[in-house]
Design a protein that fits this description.
Blueprint: E1 4-7, E2 10-13, H1 28-40, E3 47-55, E4 66-74, E5 78-87, E6 90-101, E7 130-136, E8 139-142, E9 154-159, H2 171-180, H3 182-187, E10 188-189, E11 192-193, E12 195-204, E13 212-223, E14 226-235, E15 238-249
Antiparallel strand pairs: 1-2, 3-6, 3-12, 4-5, 5-6, 7-8, 7-9, 9-13, 10-11, 12-15, 13-14, 14-15
Helix pairs in contact: 1-2
């Protein structure tokens, strides 16, 4: 299983990369992963990805697409690259990545949270990809969507399949895919999910280690149909970075994840958001 497979010089979406809301468009998770894949080719030696921002301003159709990228700046400590995904002669999605060099931390101490991040038992997911696990306040880790459709703080735990078949998924690609999934831990409430991503930002202090990644909701701030969701991205070694999504109300297409049609009867394990319409 993978998000995309090669057919000649094209990448073709597998079912996991297709929106659960419509078979004619792609999910934002796979799109974010592809943009990270395109941009990390511009990461200079000795640099690491520190930020990815994706603007999801048009749906990406389940059809042929092109990607192009450019280096904006390559300095001694900071490098920046841009990428766009194009269909039918139009830019559909754009992204920017910032790459930084590693160095010695400055002297002194600053405050940081010492809150323990929730983790399921070791070995609960497969290295080759497993159903997403969720937990809410008072509810232990489970793949049962109905158990977690509530107004409590949520966390999710992921093991992802390859982004492109026969390619090893990279830590940066994992982080990008999970960035889009921030919407789910922040905006899945007692009546389902009713917001769609307009953008995604992933800030990284380091790259993830291993094949498991968690997301823990930190805050949701909403007013008149616009909501900001922020979450901590972490692995079994601790916090990796922060993910933030800006979202729009999509109340007319609210998704009830307790029903069989929430993410498709064929694949009830896909809790992934669709780009804004």
């Amino acid at each position: 299983m993978s998000f995309f497979v090669r057919q000649g010089d094209r990448l073709v979406a597998e079912q996991i990369a297709v929106s659960p809301w419509s078979a004619t468009v792609l999910s934002g998770t796979g799109v974010c992963g592809l943009l990270a894949r395109e941009l990390e080719a511009h990461c200079p030696d000795g640099f690491v990805p520190a930020r990815l921002t994706v603007d999801l301003y048009q749906p990406v159709a389940h059809a042929a697409f092109d990607m192009r990228s450019t280096v904006v700046r390559r300095g001694s400590r900071i490098a920046v690259a841009d990428a766009v995904l194009r269909q039918d002669g139009r830019d559909r999605v754009r992204a920017t990545a910032v790459f930084l060099t590693l160095g010695t931390a400055p002297p002194g101490h600053v405050w940081s949270s010492d809150e323990v991040l929730p983790m399921p038992p070791a070995g609960c997911v497969s290295p080759d990809g497993s159903p997403t696990l969720f937990s809410s306040d008072g509810i232990n880790w489970t793949a049962d969507f109905a158990a977690n459709q509530n107004a409590e703080r949520k966390a999710s735990w992921h093991s992802l399949p390859p982004l492109v078949a026969d390619e090893q998924i990279t830590p940066f690609q994992r982080a990008a895919i999970l960035g889009d999934a921030t919407n789910h831990v922040c905006h899945w409430g007692s009546e389902g999910a009713g917001y769609i991503n307009a953008d995604v930002t992933v800030n990284l202090s380091r790259l993830p280690i291993g094949y498991e990644l968690g997301l823990r909701a930190d805050n949701t701030i909403a007013s008149e149909g616009i909501s900001i969701g922020s979450a901590t991205l972490y692995d079994r070694s601790g916090a990796v970075g922060t993910c933030v999504v800006t979202t729009l109300s999509n109340a007319r297409r609210q998704i009830d994840f307790t029903g069989a049609t929430a993410v498709g009867a064929e694949e009830p394990r896909r809790p992934w958001r669709q780009v804004a319409e």
